[in-house]
Automatic annotation (TrEMBL):
The lineage of its organism: Eukaryota, Fungi, Dikarya, Basidiomycota, Agaricomycotina. Belongs to the aldo/keto reductase family. Keywords: Membrane, NADP, Oxidoreductase, Transmembrane, Transmembrane helix. This is Aldo keto reductase. The active site is at residue 51. The record marks 76 as: Lowers pKa of active site Tyr. SUPFAM superfamilies: NAD(P)-linked oxidoreductase. Substrate binds at residue 107.
Length: 303
């Protein structure tokens, strides 16, 4: 199956895979990479005020030759330079060179100032003015979503969070809460298990599943996100990888595959947590010993 669109709760649809510009920096590089992504078939570009490359993404989008309605643009309010939401969206539109964005997100709950209800009301006003077609949030927890929904006239259409098997157990309650209210989950950084955390419990099931499907481990991870019903937000500077990401939609994981990845992810999460706790237990006494030794050297009585 291809990367189909997913229906949002406001009646619009969102492409289920996006090319993300986080960490691309600025200058000609991100323009070239967004251009490349569009050329291989990506029709959803995800950027943010904080990434400082909206203008570069906008150049690539305009030069793609695609009609505005054929490219889905997501950007985010990041509180950059202390600017408020109304000012920020106008700056983003100017940077991107468009009259509206398809999806506008509050990048993090701490940016919802002076509080979540007030900030969300401003988001609703942007939608009513037609500056944004859909509104949503990013990196919210269940509590923050609850606060938002308690006063919202318009529900968030989407919620973007980190999503891969090692964080799934933590993110699952947030995803379920969102689904209960018709909020689509978007998952960023889906490839962290192989790009930043290789050698963990996921390596074996990923290898086994990939071999059976004649796929790659990154394709299996993207297929896993798709199986969870989430929009994939990913990136690469390599054309062949982007082409592979688009082909990942053709790989259907079985229920056993998904369970194996979920279970390995949960084991890995426990292992990483235990290692982090152990490092703290080791580092704190060592730091204390160094401090005591330094005090003793300086002739200070700490007891």
């Amino acid at each position: 199956m291809p990367w189909d669109t997913i229906k949002l709760n406001d009646g619009r649809s969102i492409p289920s895979i996006a090319f993300g510009t986080w960490k691309l920096g600025n200058g000609q590089g991100p323009t070239d990479q967004v251009d490349q992504a569009i050329s291989v078939g990506f029709s959803h570009v995800d950027t943010a005020q904080a990434y400082r490359n909206e203008a570069e993404a906008g150049v690539a989008i305009r030069e793609s030759g695609l009609a505005r309605e054929n490219i889905f643009i997501t950007t985010k309010y990041s509180g950059l330079d202390g600017l408020d939401i109304p000012t920020s969206i106008n700056n983003s539109l100017k940077n991107l060179g468009v009259t509206y964005v398809d999806l506008y997100l509050i990048h993090h709950p701490r940016l919802a100032v002076p509080d979540i209800p007030t900030a969300w009301k401003q988001m609703e006003e942007l939608k009513e003015k037609g500056l944004v077609k859909s509104i949503g949030v990013s990196n919210f927890g269940v509590v923050e979503l609850g606060v938002l929904l308690a006063s919202a006239k318009i529900k968030p259409a989407a919620h973007q969070i980190m999503l891969h098997p090692y964080v799934y157990a933590t993110q699952k309650p947030i995803m379920e809460y969102g689904a209960k209210h018709g909020i689509v989950t978007e998952g960023y950084s889906p490839l962290i298990p192989i790009t930043q955390l290789p050698g963990g419990p996921l390596d074996e099931p990923l290898k086994t599943i990939a071999k059976r499907l004649s796929a790659t481990s990154d394709q299996v991870l993207l297929a896993w996100v798709k199986a969870k019903g989430a929009v994939v937000v990913t990136t690469s500077s390599k054309r062949y990888r982007l082409e592979g990401y688009l082909r990942a939609a053709d790989f259907a994981l079985t229920a056993d595959d998904i369970s194996a990845l979920d279970e390995a992810g949960e084991r890995g999460a426990r292992s990483f947590t235990a290692r982090k706790y152990l490092r703290r237990l080791i580092v704190l006494p060592l730091s204390a010993a160094v401090a005591i030794g330094l005090c003793s050297y300086m002739g200070l009585d700490v007891f």
